[in-house]
């Protein structure tokens, strides 16, 4: 019965298209459930061994035997063998599932890294040298929401390159709301 439940969990996990973190959480929960089930089976074996001991004691006290010791030992050995085989099979299936999910996650991670690398490769080079060739008189301007250097230049009548040089802005796409800029020749 628990094999059926395990297969249902495996099929449900593989059929759903969830995020890697959800898949990993589901997998951890499945493994936790399997570990719990193996623990329950181990407890059951211990219980059967205790019952076997009790039956031996009762047989000695009553002077008759309900089952021979050899029969009980065979039954316990068969049960232990069945549990070991089932646990090994479950571990193998779980490892295969984990391996597949890790491979999928690795592919997704590599794709994300490639995407980020391509984005960085297409970025404009950062300006590292600035000229002093701009008007030395001007105004202060506080960057507002929605402002870009081009918008600020249009508002103040200044040149974008003069604003970049005067404020030593290495990446013109990165100005912050509330930042105060010197606008050379601005009105």
Automatic annotation (TrEMBL):
Residues 139-183 form the LysM domain. Residues 1-17 form the signal peptide. InterPro entries: LysM (IPR018392), LysM_dom_sf (IPR036779). Keywords: Coiled coil, Signal. The keyword Coiled coil applies. Residues 31-65 form a coiled coil. It comes from the Bacteria. Pfam families: LysM. This is Peptidoglycan-binding LysM.
